[in-house]
Amino acid sequence: MAKMRDGVMTEADTCREFVTPRLIEAGWSEAPHAIGEQHTFTNGRIIVTGGKVRRGKQKRADYLLYYRRDFPLAVVEAKEIGLPAETGVQQAREYAEMLGLKFAYATNGHRIIEIDYTMGTEHQVSRYATPDELLARLTAASHLPEVSTTHLLEPFNLVSGKVPRYYQQIAIHRVIESILLGQKRILATLATGTGKTCVAFQICWKLWSSRWNRTGEYRRPKILFLADRNILVDDPMAKMFAPFGDARHKIAGGNVSQSRDMYFGIYQALSTASEDVFRQYRPDFFDLIIIDECHRGSSRDESSWRAVLDYFEPAIQFGMTATPLREESRDTYDYFGNPVYTYSLRQGIEDGFLAPYRVHRVITTVDAAGWRPSKYELDRFGRAVPDEEYQTKDFERVVALRARTRAIAKHLTDLLKGTDRFGKTLVFCVDQEHAAEMRQELLNLNKDLVKQYPDYACRVTADEGSIGLTHLAHFQDVDKPTPVILTTSQLLTTGVDAEMVKNVVLARVVGSRSEFKQIIGRGTRLKVDYGKEYFNIIDFTGTATSHFADPDFDGDPARIEVVTVNEDGEVVEVVVDETPGVASTDDEHLIESETEDAGGGNIISEPPAEPRKFYIDGGEVEVIGHLVYDLDTDGKKLQVVSYTEYSGRAVRTLYPTREALQSAWSNPDTRAEVLRELTERGISFEELASSSAQPDADPFDLLCHLAWNAPLLTRRQRAEHAKRLTQDLFSQYGDTAREVLSLLLDKYIERGIIQFNALSELMKVQPFDRFGTPSEIAISHFGGVKGLKDAVSRLQTALYQ
After folding, report:
1. 320 with 293: CB under 8 angstroms?
2. What CATH architecture does domain 147-343 belong to?
3. Domain coordinates of the chain in residue numbers?
4. Which of 92, 218, 335, 560 could join 299 in a cystine, given CB atoms 3.0 to 4.6 angstroms apart?
5. pLDDT for 663-681, tens place per residue?
6. What is the pTM assigned to this prediction?
């Protein structure tokens, strides 16, 4: 008989006594099949509140049923035997859809409900289907030839110890299935930082190991990994694709060896100004071509790189991108077709695999009101500056305002001083010249650190050549403290895997959605052991504000702050605005062209500064605005509101009346749930007290004031009121106990009700420790632990009567 808790069979009991035995009966435990119990497949969203970080709830399936080690077929959701089996249906469906599975089961141990997505059915069954039965249904539905299943079932390469995440497994299987079905052009869209290279490697490994090829011969396939930058092929070739060993070859410098299986190349090396190197290979030489960052030009009809893909037309071409379908990426989707799988930035953050971000919108005087030269004003070189109104899009393109650059550098420096002066930071500037001036200002403002760390701030653009690449390598090295700040323009927008980036600074307008997402992607990688669990986007141009306001954007910030600074980079004020700033979307003149030297060089060259740029060294620029953008309480739409207004609206959504909130708050047991709900919505009492200038207010009163304009009481007023209400409580104890209770009220006055949540920890430190350990205090002065808890509970309840 199953072991029961309090006379009731739990879900764990039901699984052990009924579910697992019936799965074993169906053959799921026999090799090579397997039963995965309590399978966690997300990490839980990282929630940032008041600069503090915690994890949300992970998603965990009761059972995953595997046909092979790396090939799950079904999910099983079990409920305790006393509940209807239907109770688990919705969750079984949710998990099956997330995991890309076609079969799901919901059970209470006795009854089994089978959900079959291939047939569109949901009904009760007498037993679980066997592994072979489900595989037969799956292959029949996908129209895969039986001989092809060996390629699909080929195990992953797990030499690195990293098991592909659930969404990576889906992408791998979807792409291979498309290849096996004969699809010639295939696209997968995965957000930056979610492991596109891992997906590409496992696809190649499974096909190579199982000897798949286009012609069905008994040989390994010829595969080309193609990109537009050396950094995008050198790093994967040396690291992720290392298990291919001597089968690897990079096509560079005319070296066109044809005896290998796994080739790497960049367009520029394959198609030089003097010759088309790629034509030294037969058009049907490659079985599969993988195009990394495929949105970056090769799929455009007029692109010079398109000739490479056209020449190798017989090969199956698989494109990878982080860019969802937008007007500027339409060529990619026209060429490859709709993606076989999409994993968005929003989903990556929700699952806890990507770092969330806080957005600071910083407004200078000239960005807010524009800049106009004074009468007869001359620039640095004695040229008359045309008398026009210049806006954000013109700065550093038409007029270069050194005072604006200095204000931006000062504000950034102060932000780092207040957080982490060694937090890795990328500053995206308008052009190479702007990046050089920004670097110089940052060095001057941080000269105390530059004395010890000469490379504290460096520029990495085309002009630096190999020196810039060295700076970049050190920036990416977790063991090297510097460079801390890299200034750049176009070079680092993509292909830079720097997990430690804590700050992404936008000092130039980014009108292209694709480029904006690539830039944001520089910070989305998590590095928890480095202390990087979220990152800041510091926006001086309105770029982030504009893109986040677009309802089609697929990743929302934890919070957006808009700051106003003066010419010294100091914060001046907080402004609340109901209309987000709009950045220009004229991509043609905002985004510089990028090329790489024909010999396969390492650096993207950037065009020279515009000849009609005017240089203004004088004048003053101040920061004048700080807006706060937050998600609404449903977490779906960005609104430009004050933090206090957002918090009041969130409270009203959770608790329609003040009385409802007071009822939940007064009880210490239910207060924990209130605090959890508020935390999940990003509400921090420390930030509320600061934003509303009410540092002495009780958190409950502050919430009621913001939600219903209720009068405010200070914590001292509430403590004095509570002491009057509990005179009988104080009178029933001795002097020491009364002193302990009085000290608890003093702590409440000092730091708020939150302190009562960790009573045992609180009473281990001064001034309580002089009375003994928490257990000694409870036993000696309150008649035991229960007596102490009851006394504290009465005290807390009295605070809100």
Report:
1. yes
2. 3-Layer(aba) Sandwich (3.40)
3. 11-139, 147-343, 356-626, 642-713, 716-799
4. 335
5. 888 777 788 788 877 776 6
6. 0.71
Residue 207 structure tokens:
């096909």
Same fold yes or no, 11-139 and 356-626:
no
Q: 662: buried, middle or exposed (CB in 10 Å: 19+, 13-18, 0-12)?
A: middle
The residues, any chain, with a CB within 8 Å of residue 344's CB and separated by 6 or more, are 189, 191, 324, 554, 555
* CB proximity list for 561: less than 8 A, separation 6 or greater: 358, 359, 360, 361, 626, 627, 628, 629
Summarised one tens digit per residue, pLDDT across range 587-632 is 322 223 333 333 333 333 343 444 569 888 888 887 665 454 543 4
Regarding beta strands 71-78 and 103-107, do their DSSP bridges make them parallel or antiparallel, or are they unpaired? Answer: parallel
- Give the DSSP per-residue string, 586-627: -HHHHS---EE-TTT-S-EE-PPPPTT-EEE--S---EEEE-
CATH of domain 356-626: 3.40.50.300
Query: Hey, what are 201's tokens?
Result: 């490697």
Nearest-10 Cα torsion for 450, 454, 460, 462: 130
The DSSP code for 431 is S
- Residue 217 has which token pair? 């011969």
Provide the 3-class DSSP secondary structure of residue 71. Answer: strand
Burial letters for 169-187: b for 16+ Cβ neighbours within 10 Å, e otherwise? bbbbbbbbbbbbeebebbb
Question: Tokens 């098991």, residue?
Answer: 163
Backbone angles phi, psi at 73, to 5 degrees: -115, -30
The count of other CB atoms within 10 Å of the CB of residue 245 is 8
**Sequential DSSP letters for 250-266:** E-BTTB---S-SEEEEE
